[in-house]
Amino acid sequence: MREAVFMDEQGVSAEMEWDGLDGVCYHALALSSTGDAIGCGRISPDGHIGRIAVLSAWRGKRVGSSLLESLLGYARSQHYSQVDLGAQMHAVPFYQRFNFIAVGEIFIDANMPHIKMQLSLKNS
């Protein structure tokens, strides 16, 4: 799935995509009613959410929202005080719907503009 979305669609190199952190992260996987994987995401032990990917045919159908809700639920269950992520600029409004706040300057990651976003979990 990540290969289809990040590498094939967005041109991210294999070296950048496979960063060696998967083994220490908690992963969320979205499945269709027939059991096919249609979306994924992860959160690292330090509260960094990343690698949220949804196959193109499933975008706009709340798959990404469900994945993010699952990852945030895990973060709350682990008593994280905050989480952060590096949002591609086109995805900023999506994360803002979950009350993430953009911090800092736009930066380039995998040849695409991103911005760091944070969400406090202290009162949620």
Characterization of the model:
The chain has 124 residues and is α+β, with helices and mostly antiparallel strands. The chain has a single domain (2-120), classed as Gcn5-related N-acetyltransferase (GNAT) (Aminopeptidase, 3-Layer(aba) Sandwich), CATH 3.40.630. Helices cover 26% and strands 36% of the residues. It is built from four helices and six strands. It has helices at residues 2-9, 14-17, 63-77, 92-96, and strands at residues 26-31, 37-43, 48-54, 82-88, 101-109, 112-120. A six-stranded mixed sheet has the order 1-2-3-4-6-5, sandwiched between helices. The chain is globular and about 35 Å long. It starts with a helix and ends with a strand. The mean pLDDT is 91.
Per CATH, the architecture is 3-Layer(aba) Sandwich
Q: Can you count the helices? A: 4
Widest beta sheet: strand line-up: 1-2-3-4-6-5
The amount of beta strand, in percent, is: 35-45%
Mean pLDDT: 91
